[in-house]
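Journal club prep, notes for RB
We'll compare a predicted complex against what the paper describes. Inputs for the adenosine-5'-diphosphate case:
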Amino acid sequence: MSTALPKKPLHIAMAASEAVPYAKTGGLADVVGVLPQELIRLGHEVTLVLPGYRSVLESLPSRETKIRFTTPVGSVSIEGMVEEVCVPIGGGSCPLKILVVRCDPYFDRPGLYQDQHGDYQDNLERFSLFSQAVLRGIGYLHERDGWPVDVLHLHDWQTALCSVYLRAGVRGLAIPSVKTLLTLHNVGYQGLFPGERFPVTGLPDALFSPHALEFYGLVNCLKGGIIFSDAVSTVSQTYAKEILTKEFGYGLEGVLADRREGIHGIVNGIDVNVWNPETDRFTPASYNVSDLSGKEVCKRLLQRELGLPVRSVPLLAAIGRLTHQKGFDLLLEALPELVLLDIQLVLLGTGDRDLEERWMEAKSAHPDCVAVHIGFDEGLAHRIQAGADMLVMPSRYEPCGLTQLQSLRYGTVPIVRCTGGLADTVVPFKPSTVRANLATGFHFDNPTSDAMLSAILLAVSVYREREMWHSLMKAGMKVDVSWTRSAERYEQLYRTVLSSSQ
Ligand code: ADP
């Protein structure tokens, strides 16, 4: 009988522009906050590299300086430091190592990417410098540890340039043994800058060409990462196919289709310790799949908190960034019909000024059935997930989506546009899935208010069939939305990258 040899643990470096609990503007931070912990639990060593934003410096005060560096950014030389801190995770003995890239003029600011006037004008400088510092940090680990980094896992345009610097032969930045994986969390955000700004990257001029970083006269950081990384993945299998089309590829569909080995799709999970209706520190009552009574308490108290009448009517929630992508304008369009149904609607979000104003107007026009909270409020997001009956996600596209995973876990039935990760994680209500007790929510195909309204109408009618509704809620609560399986899939992918490109 042969026994399989245990696989060698890997050393993964993960570079990202945000990570919970240090800096967050969206789902990327949730992913980068949890995935390293899961990989450590699987026995791997993980080093996370983050920019030294003000929030990072404040939440990780006891850092040790490891290296100082000087990098040319355009015609000036910028000085910075890579600092290190070890953070204990989940009671385990193996801590998470975090490298913090210090360059205070660029990162010690109130916002991550923008202020009240819009995007910072020097974002290309900021993330070119960050990407170079990531490689210097890894170079340092190579020299110090007997266990160099095997795979550098990059996330989105802000770190995509790491792969370009690694392969472009820029002095001091080439580490031949490191393989790279770039994960695309949203192809709609590519890091586009005017072509004349290219020199601030310090990359050879030859790379400003259509075969590398040039994109219709602009610098496109994500494109560079897609071309130069050893492997590319995205956050659901459906989105991995969608981005090869004109509708979803935002001009990069051809570049993506050119990757011979394809785009890997690995769906995100959520932190099931943070998102747990039994132990949630933000909610007024706890519940679980075998006793849902606490959810009713959460609903009553949520209605009170939102200033809505305390009534047992369906409470429909929407949570997310107020951008065209998320499609919450379709809800506004459907409002005249929605208010005729005996339901309540709560929106929590922040984003486009115009959408924020339109939602505030909707609230003033229908105070008895529409509640709106403009802003980013973690506690309220938890209380809404616990207290609402349904969550609607009318996204025009959705690479993965985390809010529907959170709502499944909280027995809040998702109503989703059938796209990207929404299609992959919500099983639609139809006779065959209901018979098999597999249905967990409702789908609609087209990004129109009509299609969305039909799905909401169906959900509201099923809501009135209490037994059927409870089985929908419970089926959702039983779905495994944790990171366990996805972290294993990333591990497999790292090993594939290592073996295929050696
Ligand atoms: P995206 O990354 O496109 O913004 P995701 O669904 O992947 O969308 O992740 C969004 C994350 O941010 C979820 O954890 C969600 O609960 C949270 N979130 C979004 N908007 C808000 C808000 N206004 N207040 C609190 N949490 C929010």
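Talking point for the session: The chain has a mean pLDDT of 95.
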